[in-house]
Design goal:
The chain has helices spanning about 5-15, 20-35, 40-50, 55-70, 75-85, 90-100, 105-120, 130-135, 140-145, 145-150, 155-165, 170-175, 180-190, 230-245, 250-260, 270-280, 285-300, 305-320, 325-335, 340-360, 365-380, 385-395, 400-415, 420-430, 435-450, 450-465, 470-485, 495-500, 505-515, 515-525, 530-535, 540-550. By secondary structure, the protein is mainly α.
């Protein structure tokens, strides 16, 4: 990068940190003209555009960043944020996932992906997809009444696809190659000629559904004759079951052993004996029996459900011994043999336990302190992405240390990642709501995001905790100045026009109808300094700030 481009970039960074986003864009644009192949410049300008809520421009620069440096994870973070802000949730999800392929532990990408997935979960499909209404309600009667689609309803694969569309209309593109689905869509839409009946009038009498043939009575299944060995094995197994229920475990083991010796292909004897060993906390013997059952079952080609049961029992042993990784593996193998609701639930519990164990095993307060110190050093040097990495590792090592979230929030502020900074402030407050500094950080973040009411609320909360700290007055003065400046004609509308709009806001009308607020506003006109005393009341302050933000009241 040339000296001139570097100078322009540094000016842009300084303006960005000061919340002067228009000025930052100007300097970043100058730097780009001097060095158009530098991906960092496009990334920085994208962040500035996003801060001004110019998300289309932010997306263009993010895409240019990715195009210029496709192996740089942060470019995908910029792209994901812009797409998410534009409401393109699926595209945002893909962008965050692409970035995570390059840097799987990137905190910004992980949080961005989490936000996208939460947004997807909260969406109402009925309002998003035109096919949602089409496949809602009782579609089967309509399809059954049409000669062409009636026969489709007797085809299991068609019904499976139809049910899939009812539960998730967004999956329509997966089935568009199936002519039966497209015929069904035509019928449901009531299109002329749907189902090939081109001469049929639109208002036809529904064809009655074809009568189902009476099911033929099933012939009684022929009982498979057991060999004498198999009969003996079953007898011993049943006696073993009775002993097990009576908690006569040693006797049960002896009976299951005799059952297995009588017929080795009766592997249920082994899995039952394993259950007894589990009761006796003889876990190695239990696993050995299950593994033997799987081996014998494979050689005798027994029902796959019995093999699945053996794998499930292995998983149960590993859960008891807290070997969660092995438990997950065993339950997965069980599901491969026979996917049952019970094993699926066991697998979920094992995966959750493994995740918790992994997190807890990583916790190390001493290493957390070391990572924090490295983060502090990077912060002082202005190497903010490196500082984020170290602070994130410190948090993983000691997630209950509120100061770590505060430090990372300060670093996100420097990077212009205000949304992530707010999240860290909230997390810090959850752990320690009596920590004054975090309210200063939060107030500044809301200030940069032009959320002035929230900024004042943060400063007022901090002031209650540390009344002598001058940061609160400085912060509120800066916010009031910004709010006062916002009453100027920055949107192309006159003050009168903005006030007329505000007076249509029910909340504004309610505040102005408040007798106490009217008296306060009158006092302010006769004695402008009186408002400072009134603002000590948080309820009055919130209402007053609302009026200032709406342009009803000017503080100048």
């Amino acid at each position: 990068m040339s000296a001139a481009a570097l100078e322009a970039k540094n000016k842009g960074n300084a303006a960005f940190s000061a919340g002067q986003f228009e000025e930052a864009i100007k300097h970043f644009s100058e730097a780009i003209e001097l060095d158009p192949s530098n991906h960092v410049l496009y990334s920085n300008r994208s962040a500035a555009f996003a801060s001004l809520k110019k998300f289309e421009d932010a997306l263009k620069d993010a895409e240019k960043t990715v195009q210029t440096k496709p192996d740089w994870a942060k470019g995908f973070s910029r792209k994901g944020v812009a797409l998410f802000s534009l409401g393109r949730v699926e595209d945002a999800e893909k962008a965050f996932q692409e970035g995570l392929k390059l840097e799987p532990t990137n905190a910004q990408l992980l949080e961005g992906l989490s936000d996208v997935q939460k947004a997807k979960a909260q969406r109402r499909p009925q309002g998003e997809n035109p096919f949602a209404q089409l496949f809602g309600g009782d579609i089967y009667t309509k399809l059954r009444s049409n000669p062409q689609t009636a026969k489709f309803l007797d085809q299991p694969d068609f019904l499976q696809k139809l049910n899939g569309l009812k539960s998730d209309p967004n999956s329509m593109q997966l089935y568009m190659q199936d002519p039966r689905i497209m015929t069904a869509v035509s019928v449901l839409l009531g299109l002329p000629g749907a189902g090939g009946e081109e001469d049929e009038p639109m208002d036809y009498e529904p064809t009655p559904p074809p009568k189902k043939e009476e099911p033929k009575p099933k012939e009684p299944e022929k009982k498979v004759e057991l060999s004498s060995e198999e009969k003996t094995s079953e007898e011993f197994k049943e006696k073993g079951n009775a002993a097990y229920k009576a908690k006569k475990f040693d006797e049960a083991i002896e009976l299951y052993t005799k059952a297995y010796e009588a017929s080795p292909k009766n592997i249920t004897c082994l899995t039952n004996r394993a259950a007894v060993y589990i009761e006796q906390a003889k876990y190695a013997e239990a696993i050995a029996d299950c593994e033997k059952a799987i081996e014998e079952g494979r050689s005798h080609m027994v029902d796959y459900k019995l093999i699945a049961k053996a794998y499930q029992r292995i998983g149960n042993v590993h859960m008891k011994t807290k070997n969660f990784s092995e438990a997950v593996e065993a339950y997965k193998k069980s599901n491969t043999e026979d996917r049952t609701p019970q094993t699926i639930e066991f697998l979920k519990k094992a995966e959750k336990a493994l995740e918790e164990k992994t997190k807890n095993d990583y916790i190390d307060p001493q290493k957390s302190v070391e990572a924090k110190e490295r983060g502090n050093d990077f912060f002082k040097k202005g190497q903010f992405p490196d500082a984020i990495r170290e602070y994130s590792d410190a948090i993983a090592r000691n997630p209950k240390d509120h100061v770590l979230y505060s430090n990372r929030a300060a670093t996100y502020t420097k990077l212009g990642e205000y949304r992530y900074g707010i999240k860290d402030c909230d997390e810090c407050i959850k752990i320690n709501a009596e920590f004054p500094k975090i309210y200063s950080r939060k107030g500044l973040l809301h200030y940069f995001m032009k959320e002035y009411d929230k900024a004042i609320q943060a400063y007022e909360t901090g002031k209650k905790l540390d009344p002598n700290n001058p940061e609160w007055e400085d912060g509120m003065r800066r916010v009031f100045e910004a709010m006062s400046g916002r009453t100027n004609d920055t949107s192309g509308k006159t003050v009168e026009q903005r006030r007329e709009e505000a007076l249509r806001d029910p909340e504004i009308v309610e505040i102005l109808s408040d007798v106490v607020m009217n008296q306060i506003l009158q006092d302010m006109q006769s004695n402008p300094k009186a408002i400072q005393e009134h603002l000590k009341n948080p309820i009055v302050a919130a209402k007053f700030n609302k009026l200032v933000a709406a342009g009803i009241v000017s503080t100048r």
